[in-house]
Amino acid sequence: MAKSSGIGTAGLAVTGAGVLANALAYVVPVLGARQLSPADLSALATLLAMTAIAGVASTGLQIAVAVHRARSGPVPTARSAFYTVLGTACALLFVMPIAVVVLDLRAPATAFAAISTVGVVAAGRWLGEMQGDQRFLPLAAGIAVVSGGRYGGVVLGLATGLGLTTSLLLGAVTAVLALPVLHLLARRPGVPKEGEALPLRAVLTAGGATLAMLVVSYADLLLARRFLSPDLSGAYAVGTVLTKGALWAPQVVTILALPRLAQGNRRTLRLGLLVVGGCGVFLVAASALAGGLAFGLAGGPDYVEMGRYAWIFAATGACYGLVFMLINAQVAAEARWPSAPLWVVTALFVLGTWLFLPHTVPGIAAGALGAAVLALTVTGALVIARVRTSVTEVRSNHESLSVE
């Protein structure tokens, strides 16, 4: 699968870069809790949540570039990347001033967080080029550079006690400085860019699918915040750490598989689903056997008694891991509206929680698992139908050529 290295080395490198990115993202709120006042810590958490949502554009751009490049070779991507960054910047210019007033945020801190986000979105172009070219070792280095740029300055500022605004200023600086490094990593001197340029609609489709995954996988956390007491919603938040772990643990498989999926390799899809599913089964079994330990590691000794529910959270994440793989396969196949099933499932889950589900930790967790199973069933059925249609078309074309 990888051109510049063996698949094992590529997988380890990308996994290591992903672990670094997640570790840095985890360190920021941990340091904030120790260095900032409660008001500034709340502001930091709010800004991180807002920039995470806006950062979906980066993932959408990366997926779209990777798919188009895997299909068509080193085609021009600058135009679509520019419009994606411009659209994100305009959206932030509109939303952030409102957030400053409504959420009582500091204007400078909010502006620095927005600048950092624009830098992260711009990085999606070069990450996508390396992924589409199956240059996974440079891609791993690029992921590390982006995560270091996104969080490194903030971590440095918080660790040295510089406060919220100055820390976010350092984060904005490092996020922008990471871009020329990414450009150098993605460069391929002597390889001309030619062919059909990346269409902007491909970025919108991939971005919409990524946003839908984010919303459907976070819906239960927001509903728990709405319907549970503060103590129980805090316990539920600890449980969702297991959900996110099971969802993102096999992410490297999707990253490595995406270029082959874009080239119509059905064997890669089957193998990818098998590996992601196997990882999910292992994590669910481990959570069932050692749920108290899992909750204790995620939230501390106060949450050990919630361990009997650990397998539910892990199973939800495992299902969404498979859904993420299938949705990426749909995007790679240029399917129309690949995110539609996820929006429908989200709406049904919210409605069901509002009207029918018991407003308890196991009640909402069971509803989240049901939503994940439904999303997996629908997306799986759509992928199977697409594959069968493709096989039928290939056979028809072959028979037509034989007759001629």
Automatic annotation (TrEMBL):
Keywords: Membrane, Transmembrane, Transmembrane helix. The chain crosses the membrane at residues 41-68, 80-103, 109-127, 139-162, 168-186, 198-216, 236-259, 271-297, 309-328, 340-357, 363-385. It comes from the Bacteria. This is O-antigen/teichoic acid export membrane protein. The lineage of its organism: Bacteria, Bacillati, Actinomycetota, Actinomycetes, Micromonosporales.
